[in-house]
Write a structure and sequence with these properties.
The protein is built from nine helices and 14 strands. It is of the alpha/beta class. Pathway: Amino-acid biosynthesis; L-arginine biosynthesis; N(2)-acetyl-L-ornithine from L-glutamate: step 3/4.
């Protein structure tokens, strides 16, 4: 049994992380840190946990826990570690602070990029994990098989929609119900911050890739999930593409290639990524769907912890979604 500490316990990703870990047979949650909620029951903030836990938020930290999950806003993980230097345990960071190679080393700690379908063995031997971003997860899983065979020969075009939880728990004018409901919009066209880690992975697999990844992120009027359509030039047949994808993901615990056309409800509340392929003339269309809070955040973080400790990769993550 390993002990867990969670920093930044009041946000959406922390709520999902707590829910998963409460059902994980190999862990015990030692503390959940939140200065703004210290002394309050966790279930008072994450109300789906009523009846599941009596844990209380705290403003004190136990540096002796085995695993520390950082569920902080972007930029805050680095600040937290700079102020709390006594942690020599496993750290899994859910922010974007350490995902890029230029930022992966910090205070003697070297963070490994935690995309299991890319580098499972490195994760298994790591101590510090930089969990991928939600859009980055969905988009990379769409193109990893092509990049691994150096088959990205032209620009990659991506149009992806995320639910409101992708913006975090803090309110803004584009997350209020009155703005989001019955509405649709794009944001950060061609400049989204997750492009950095996507391009880094492509270069890792296909050195010398010099085409563009044109990414248009959109806000959807639903709570959770990512639906991404990616297309690029592909000389082979649809059957050849399917064979390539099935081979690449044959040992993946949560990524599945299907002939069924996809929709978001197939993956919500699960740690799955579903992929669908379609060929039109010389273009290959890859549709990918994930839950942004689970496979795109907390579920993948637990998957990385399982790999690192040698647990069954699916431990705690046999989550059940619903199409209704």
């Amino acid at each position: 049994m390993i002990t867990i500490g969670i920093i930044g316990g009041a946000g959406f990703t922390a709520g999902e992380l707590i829910r998963i870990l409460l059902h994980h047979k190999k862990v015990n949650i030692d503390f959940i840190y939140s200065t703004s909620n210290a002394g309050n029951k966790v279930s008072a903030v994450h109300q789906d946990l009523i009846g599941s836990t009596e844990l209380v938020f705290t403003n004190t930290i136990n540096p002796k826990v085995d695993v520390l999950f950082l569920c902080l806003g972007h930029g805050n993980s680095k600040n937290f570690l700079a102020q709390n230097t006594s942690f020599n345990n496993v750290i899994i960071d859910l922010s974007n602070d350490f995902r890029l190679q230029d930022n992966a080393k910090f205070q003697g700690k070297e963070f490994v990029y935690g995309l299991p379908e890319l580098q499972k063995e490195k994760i298994q031997h790591a101590q510090y994990i930089a969990n991928p971003g939600c859009f980055a997860t969905a988009l990379q899983l769409a193109i990893l098989p092509l990049a691994s065979e150096r088959l990205l020969e032209n620009d990659v075009h991506v149009n992806a929609v995320t639910g409101a939880t992708g913006a975090g728990v803090s309110l803004s004018k584009t997350t209020h119900f009155t703005w989001r409901d019955n509405n649709f919009s794009y944001y950060k066209p061609f400049t989204h911050q997750h492009l950095g880690e996507i391009n880094q992975t492509v270069q890792q697999l296909q050195t010398g890739f010099d085409s563009e990844i044109n990414f248009l992120p959109n806000r959807g009027n639903f709570s959770r999930g990512i639906y991404a359509t990616t297309y690029t030039h592909f000389k082979g047949s649809l059957e050849e593409a399917k064979a390539l994808y099935h081979e690449y993901y044959k040992d993946a615990a949560f990524t599945f290639v299907t002939d069924q056309e996809l929709h978001v409800k197939q993956v919500v509340n699960t740690n799955k990524c579903l992929l669908h392929l379609h060929k039109h003339n010389d273009k290959l269309l890859i549709t990918s769907c994930i839950d942004n809070l689970i496979k795109g955040a907390s579920g993948q973080a637990v998957q990385n912890m399982n790999l690192l400790y040698g647990f069954d990769e699916k431990e705690g993550l046999e989550l059940k979604g619903s199409c209704f």
